[in-house]
Amino acid sequence: MNPWGLAPAAGALLLAPLFLGVIHRTKAVFAGRAGKPLFQVYFDLATWARKGAVYSRTTTWVFRLAPLASPAASLVALLLLPQGGFRAVFSFPGDFLALIFVLSTSRFLTVVGALDTGSSFEGMGASREAAFSALAEPVLLLCLAVVAREAGQSSLSGIVGSLTGADWQRAGPALVLVAASFLAILLAENARIPVDDPTTHLELTMIHEVMILDHGGPDLALLTYGAALKLWALGALLTGLLLPGPTGPSLLGGVVFLTGMLVLAVVIGIIESTIARLRLDRVPQFLVGAGAFAVLALALVMR
Predict the structure, then answer these.
(1) For 35, 83, 257, 303, which has the most beta carbons within 10 A of its beta carbon?
(2) What was the pLDDT predicted at 248?
(3) What is the 3-state secondary structure (H, E, C) of the chain?
(4) pLDDT of residue 245
């Protein structure tokens, strides 16, 4: 156990909603609007936390467990993830498998919580979420396997931030393919455009939003905060793979990491401002394409 890893995890708990704020501001700039304040997500979370929660008589304890599981799973993921030159709090061989398992468990509980409402509308969203995640999670595992093979490590603390300029010269095409594939999966896993639109309320197109329609008050705040933490965790993983900083805790490592996260938030905002949401029958093709990139990258590093 590395207690120093608690520092970046605490920073993520504080800054994750700001990451969403940067995305919203970028989209507003591209649309020529004033947009929401940069800290609007914090205001929304505080407002929801002060309200009461209403539960249908058809729901059980499963429905109430889902909002608690979302931020809890994201927090565990942050404890497994090295950030800004800090080693993870918990590090062991194969911990990237534990990371995927924790995030999958959170999704599973959110899906069954939606099904627990007895609503066919939420069941529709849960079905879509389960189908698309079955395509996205293997691709995420393949991306991590490629980087692990190139880094010669089986732990996230050894994989993240270990790639050097020599690695990029030797396996540059494979790493570029991994980066493109990982970005596609990051968007899919966090219900972002082009897979899903987090701002839509068009009934026939919603995926994640439809699953949390019956949640309100503190439960909605927990789900939204958990989604922000998950986006931060996967963004930090992508940033750490692409922008390795100095080994060990340092001011430079923190600056490089936060700059990379800021750039990633802007890139996501640009993507959501310049392309449209895919039709639902096109989403599997998008995820399979990301998987093909990952398979090709794995073939390149294994040769």
Answers:
(1) 83
(2) 61
(3) CCHHHHHHHHHHHHHHHHHHHHHHHHHHHHHCCCCCCCCHHHHHHHHHHHCCCCCCCCCCHHHHHHHHHHHHHHHHHHHCCCECCECCCCCCCCHHHHHHHHHHHHHHHHHHHHHCCCCHHHHHHHHHHHHHHHHHHHHHHHHHHHHHHHHCCCCHHHHCCCCCHHHHHHHHHHHHHHHHHHHHHHHHHCCCCCCCCCCCCCCCCCCHHHHCCCCCCHHHHHHHHHHHHHHHHHHHHHHHHHCCCCCCCCHHHHHHHHHHHHHHHHHHHHHHHHCCCCCHHHHHHHHHHHHHHHHHHHHHHHC
(4) 56
Residue with tokens 């936060």: 258
- The sign one gets for the Cα dihedral 153, 159, 164, 166 is positive
> From CA 87, how far away is CA 95, in angstroms rounded?
13
| Residue written as token pair 């505080």 | 46
Residues in the chain: 303
Residues 254, 236, 233, 220: is their CA dihedral positive or negative? positive
- Assess contact for 199 and 175: CB atoms under 8 A: no
Q: Note the pLDDT of residue 202.
A: 65
Q: Which residues contact 235 (CB under 8 A, 6 or more apart)?
A: 19, 186, 261, 264, 265
Is the pTM value of this prediction over 0.70? yes
- Answer whether the bond into residue 8 is a cis peptide, omega within 30°: no
